[in-house]
From TrEMBL:
It comes from the Bacteria. CDD domains: REC_OmpR. Keywords: Phosphoprotein. GO terms for biological process: phosphorelay signal transduction system. The modification 4-aspartylphosphate is found at D53. InterPro entries: Bact_response_regulator, CheY-like_superfamily, Sig_transdc_resp-reg_receiver. This is Response regulator. Transmembrane segments: none annotated.
């Protein structure tokens, strides 16, 4: 069984590219455009890794991360936060995220960071 990743990214093009690259690397991916869709998906299938954008139309990735890391059922799931604002990296420790990816990103570097959190 492949490692299962939840990807939460509201930009359709970025979401498509990331999902495509992760699938090519052997991961199983479920992608969500909103926080609400992500929370619904989380009830259905627990991922091995969550990749979470900060700016979502119906939520803030940092707040979502903090909530997930404070709940027993999800606190051990690694979370990578993505943001175009490097200043938000400082919120990484506060939210409890396991890693940070700055946008725009190099796809090879992106995959390397994913593999550090979730080796195949």
């Amino acid at each position: 069984m492949a490692n299962f990743i939840h990807l939460v990214e509201d930009d359709e093009d970025i979401r498509f590219i990331i999902e495509y690259v992760l699938v090519e690397e052997g991961y199983e991916v479920e992608a969500f455009a909103t926080a609400a869709a992500f929370y619904s998906g989380l009830l259905v299938h627990r991922p091995n890794l969550i990749i979470l954008d900060v700016m979502l139309p119906d939520g803030n990735g940092i707040s979502i991360c903090h909530k997930l890391k404070s709940e027993a059922a999800t606190l051990n799931i690694p979370i990578i936060i993505m943001s175009a604002h490097a200043a938000e990296k400082s919120a990484l420790d506060e939210a409890g995220a396991d890693d940070f990816i700055s946008k725009p990103f190099d796809l090879n570097h992106f995959i390397h960071q994913v593999k550090e959190q979730l080796p195949i």
